[in-house]
Amino acid sequence: MQPKEQLLSLQPYKPGKPVEEVKRELGLEKIIKLASNENPYGCSKLAKDKITEELSNLQVYPDGYAAEIREKLSGYLGVEQEQLIFGNGSDEVVQILCRAYLSPETNTVMAAPTFPQYRHNAVIEGAEIREVPLINGNHDLDSMIEEIDHQTKIVWLCNPNNPTGNYIPENDFVQFMKKVPSNVIVVSDEAYFEYVSANDYPNTIHYLKNYPNLVILRTFSKAHGLAALRIGYGIADRSIIKGMEPAREPFNTSRLAQAAAIGALEDEGFINECKQKNREGLELFYSFCERKDLLYYPSEANFILLDVNSDADSAFNYLLKKGYIVRSGSALGFPTMIRITIGEEEHNKEIIGHLEAYIESLVESVN
Ligand SMILES: *Cc1c(COP(=O)(O)O)cnc(C)c1O
């Protein structure tokens, strides 16, 4: 049976190899996965406590409207409750946006490389994809503006960008918003929001009033450490949310996810601690790259994309044999780079040691 024609060009999402399988295949005892930008410190205890409480209600459907976390988050963010939509991960909010606003007569503009789910979901809806190459890891906002025409429905900004970690400063963001026609949705995907420390990173929530075409995406999967539970959200003008709601499944976020998110929001201390340790980890990688003269992108997220000056897959395999799973750039549009999630200090130091040995083995093989 043939699916819709536009699906023929798509591949299902390929997750990294499960840790257990790698252990068995390579006969390793310890495997550290630094490939999916998960939080190495787990999640807040408050989130776990909420989950435990909720375990007595598993026979009851979740609240599809997610009223409790909605109320909490609206107060926390200072937006109206009607300005929020929850998804089974922010991945699902991307899907709902595409389902609600894209169709074969429309086009959508995004950077390349960026987070692949924008493209993937837009292709399923039959929309035309307009990709604008990054410049030095940054969105080329001027060229993105030029791609917008009367059929453009959604423009995607990934801030900070996955896989480069670069961010769009406030001034560039505002100049961009001024130029985008008001009937074109601009999505600011802020999956790594909690990790950002740059002073000129835009507080996009402030701009929702001036720009009712702005949609902000955030998630509990990354800094909050709740990737397993799948809960993320969109923030936008209520008219956009109203347009999206019919495309949302009735019970799309689970009881456990909603409860955990409520607990997670209450624990600012946990987030601050993770952010601080992540910064220290990034600095370790920066100084390693500078010492070894390796190109890297300064990151506002919890990962670093660095150049191994050789085939990314061979670096990936080298590290795998040492017990470290990273993300090869070959599938991300950077064939000589690898993306490493910042881990615990011990693991950062250890993988840097392995990388150093790998880089030196390259030099030796040339000599
Ligand atoms: C991880 C990630 C997401 C998706 O996160 P969910 O787990 O679906 O909430 C969205 N955007 C970017 C850029 C990401 O890196």
Automatic annotation (TrEMBL):
Pfam families found in the cross-reference section: Aminotran_1_2
Signal peptide (UniProt feature, chain positions): none
The UniProt record lists the keyword Amino-acid biosynthesis: yes
Entry-linked Gene3D superfamilies: Aspartate Aminotransferase, domain 1, Type I PLP-dependent aspartate aminotransferase-like (Major domain)
GO molecular function: histidinol-phosphate transaminase activity; pyridoxal phosphate binding
Cofactor requirement: pyridoxal 5'-phosphate
ATP-binding as UniProt keyword: no
Biological processes, Gene Ontology terms: L-histidine biosynthetic process
Keywords noted in UniProt: Amino-acid biosynthesis, Aminotransferase, Histidine biosynthesis, Pyridoxal phosphate, Transferase
Residues the record lists as N6-(pyridoxal phosphate)lysine modifications: K222
Assembly mode: Homodimer.
HAMAP family xrefs: HisC_aminotrans_2 (MF_01023)
Protein name: Histidinol-phosphate aminotransferase
Species in which this protein is naturally found: Fictibacillus arsenicus
